[in-house]
């Protein structure tokens, strides 16, 4: 009796796994059937491009990766559509320039800068810095031994 129960559970698990795989294959097939010129796509090997031509008879898609550079691909090699980038670049640059002006960045407008960049002292290494950020002799001789 327990053998039949284990066998039924195994058959049910296999059915669930194969039905999910079949569903994914159907979705991929429907996606590839609706490809049209002008869409941005990525191939399975990672090449990005724009569909230029779709040959329905031979299942061949012509992709243009850079202007004037076209290549032919099997329809099955197209992995996914590429979403166009979101128009958030303008707001990022505005926020960046406001932040730079507020903190006195070298790229900021000189009239809004709080300090002169030439006043900064940047040591080559951290060995000469104290806790307050200033440089001073820490009691070492030129030969590197301590004076204490």
From TrEMBL:
Its name, as the record gives it, is: Preprotein translocase subunit YajC
Q: Where is the composition biased (Acidic residues)?
A: 86-97
Q: What is the similarity comment for this entry?
A: Belongs to the YajC family.
Q: Which Pfam families match?
A: YajC
| Compartmental location | Cell membrane
Name a single GO cellular component.
plasma membrane
The alphabetized list of GO BP terms reads:
protein transport
Membrane-protein topology: Single-pass membrane protein
Tell me the keywords, alphabetical order. Cell membrane, Membrane, Protein transport, Translocation, Transmembrane, Transmembrane helix, Transport
Region Disordered: start-end pairs: 84-148
Species this protein is from: Cellulosimicrobium funkei
Mark out the compositionally biased spans (Basic and acidic residues).
133-148
């Amino acid at each position: 009796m327990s053998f039949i129960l284990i066998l039924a559970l195994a058959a049910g698990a296999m059915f669930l796994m194969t039905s999910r795989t079949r569903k994914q294959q159907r979705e991929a097939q429907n996606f590839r059937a609706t490809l049209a010129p002008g869409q941005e796509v990525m191939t399975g090997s990672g090449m990005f491009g724009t569909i230029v031509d779709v040959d329905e008879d031979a299942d061949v898609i012509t992709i243009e990766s850079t202007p004037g550079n076209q290549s032919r691909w099997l329809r099955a090699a197209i992995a996914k559509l590429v979403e166009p980038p979101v128009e958030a670049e303008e707001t990022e640059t505005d926020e960046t320039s406001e932040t730079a002006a507020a903190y006195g960045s070298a790229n900021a407008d000189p009239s809004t800068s709080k300090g002169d960049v030439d006043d900064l002292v940047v040591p080559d290494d951290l060995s000469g810095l104290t806790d307050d950020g200033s440089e001073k002799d820490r009691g070492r001789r030129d030969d590197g031994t301590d004076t204490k």
